[in-house]
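ok posting inputs for the NAP job
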Amino acid sequence: MQLRELGSSGLLVSPICLGSMTFGTPVGEADAIRLVHEAMDLGINFVDTANVYEGYDRYLGSPGGTAEEIVGKALKDRRDYAVLATKVCAPVGLGPQDRGLSASHILRELDNSLKRLQTDYIDLYIIHWPDKHTPLETTMAALNQAVQSGKVRYIGASNHSAAQLCEMLWLADKNGWPKVVSSQIPFSFLRREFHNDLPFCEKHSIGVTPYQALQGGLLTGKYHRGESAPAHSRAAEKPAWMWEFTDEVFDRVEGMAACAAEIGVPMAQYTLAWTLAQTAMSSLVVGAKRIEQVQDAIASLDVEIPAEHYEKLDTVSPPPWQQPDPIRS
Ligand SMILES: NC(=O)c1ccc[n+]([C@@H]2O[C@H](COP(=O)([O-])OP(=O)(O)OC[C@H]3O[C@@H](n4cnc5c(N)ncnc54)[C@H](OP(=O)(O)O)[C@@H]3O)[C@@H](O)[C@H]2O)c1
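and the output
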């Protein structure tokens, strides 16, 4: 598998990163461990988790930890072969210090993550969401402390805008702190809000690792307008995690399905190939319930999308408005 650079880190990662948000439920421990091992045997070296992941059982303020424990068991004998990412910020309890990006919460949660993951370092420590109560400088100082202690190798951001990433880069420059190397944003053919931030990431060597490129399965071709969800699918098991099946959504899903059909490629593979072809992409964080879904994701790396499809798809699911260039059009 052709690896890609993860921003300015020097790390080489597989273009598919295995997500673990469903570890616990519906992917039980034994199946999840097998999935990690099989995915790694197929060439995937990048695994994404978070302190709060515990599958479908998650509720606001629940303690989390399940997915990290499972990932820790799975990587026990292969730790050095994996680029391991985990995250901090979301609530792990109902107390005021049980969430956010204060030094107090970050440093406590980092130690908890290390214990659950059975490792003494995190390759990529990601701030999961912005925290309006904590100045970024305070957060960055805590992340610097984590890197200096050897517990963290690189830092990443998730759900942060280009303006927030810019502030992180500026603070790093100003204080001699480590730079942010990756940006994990929601990004799919149906969800293009961050589209205009991608050139910023490319220019500043921030590797983009989008999540939900398949939009929870909606862009795999298994859901159809006017039909109920197939058994054992996410829409059947956990509808709260899925988009509403509106006509407007299906207009766009069907537009992509038609393009995939035109070149005879399964829709899941086509969707991932389209996403990976966007600017600044390092690795797609993909969820999978079964190894066949991982195999599908890997097969997407061989899919070539005809150039004219990109323009066609931009009319089906347009990117956000961009400032026109007055000189070069
Ligand atoms: N940073 C953040 O805020 C954030 C937020 C959300 C997620 N994430 C990360 O992103 C990862 C992926 O998120 P996600 O699982 O919600 O989104 P996703 O990758 O868009 O959807 C994955 C789901 O789609 C279905 N699927 C996958 N491949 C398929 C295929 N080839 N054919 C048919 N169905 C297929 C499976 O569900 P079923 O088989 O059950 O239908 C699978 O669980 C998470 O595990 C997590 O690591 C990060």
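notes: Residues 4-221+266-306 form a domain with the TIM Barrel fold (CATH 3.20.20.100). The longest strand covers residues 152-158.
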